[in-house]
């Protein structure tokens, strides 16, 4: 800041002390130059009745806080704008009125998130408290039985019910699942009369990020069955025999709570080809899994086992035998309509500018997974946040932000489709990858 300019304007104000516009200019210059020691005398002649414009009262409020005059600041900061509320929060903090200051700060940030000030929030204790994760964790104890509380955590059903209405696209896959899987749950008497079992195994495979987990949850929701998401870490154990014991306990608990759906994501971690296993323990886990699915003493009536994998060619062939994972569904990347629906869902509840044509983005994102589309929206949100911080007011997500995010993104499914094409061409035993071949032909990727 030019000190000579400040000196000249201060001298002019001394000659015309009643010039309000000049006084405001001098105060602004001192405030910008962080020269708070001289603000006291400059503010003294002013009262709230001297200022008609809200931006002038906001300036004096800020200057009063800088001059350590919080009571004076409150007298000027009477507007309900987000900026005035934020300055009121600062003044109230200086006066020791933290509760009132917290309320003003939260209201200001709610109206204009770009004004968020972590330092002020910390002083006001306006941050939301972090809720500790007090769920019981799976304990690992050498040669110990799987504890009851560990099993309860592993088999804790998800509370939110998800149905096919929550899954955009994949109409053909949903129809196949509805006909082959869900119908037996809804009409058990008819299927039992024809000695058709309810349950069994389903394998979902496809590129990462295309909705295999969501589809599994929706299948459970359509069946009105409990959904148990079993993580690999819940099974694998460093001690000999513990992994098999945990796997048996999980299946046994599901049988007791049937109808139930057991979902194993990344199932290749516990079902990899045994001939490639370097450890005998891994082969034992695979054998235990197969035994739990259709062993001599097991009755899995009403228990549906869902497995999801990105590498179906890595699974042990025994998993694909009839009676185990004999029903296989390819989960492809979303089509154009599904991509538009996913983009619309991801943008929901975010500040979005009017007039964005999502069809343009959807058309330009062929081969993108749901996760890729979410990343585009997240990147566009980052751009909007940066613009909001730079401008000092909330800037919504605009079409240009989405296009900029698209230019910096790539479809992560392409590498998977290239690998899958090779397996579909040269290792398609029993037509297990026919769905992949059909998808590649349809989209000209052969």
Describe the structure.
- Helix 13 links the parallel strand 2 and strand 3.
- Strands 2-3-4-1-5 form a 5-stranded parallel beta sheet.
- It is an alpha/beta fold and 446 residues long.
- The protein is 52% helix and 7% strand.
- It contains 21 helices and 5 strands.
- The N and C termini lie far apart (66 Å).
- It has 4 domains: 122 residues, Alpha Horseshoe (Serine Threonine Protein Phosphatase 5, Tetratricopeptide repeat); 183 residues, P-loop containing nucleotide triphosphate hydrolases (Rossmann fold, 3-Layer(aba) Sandwich); 72 residues, Helicase, Ruva Protein, domain 3; 30 residues, no CATH class.
- The radius of gyration is 32 Å and the shape is elongated.
